[in-house]
Amino acid sequence: MNRLTFNTWVLRVAAAFALVWSVLRAVQQAITLDEADTYLWFAGREAKWIWYPFPNNHVLNTLLIWLSTHVFGTAALTVRLPALLGAVLYISVAYFL
Length: 97
Known about the structure:
Blueprint: H1 6-28, H2 33-43, H3 59-72, H4 76-96
């Protein structure tokens, strides 16, 4: 079994810190105007509004917000769940690169 090098250990700690920090911020901070607009105009309505062509409507994000809020209910964390999943994906890819 290979021992973890110091650099690998530091990268793992940094990745874990970034993930924990992202979740804590998502829970603690108030919803921003942009997040509220996305939810109220697109994700909080019928599914047909997810596809509405508008500059602020990011369809994939709106779809994922619609899904997460319909499955888990409306809360700051569930509105931000797609962004948190994006953070997990980004940090994981950056770590393995």
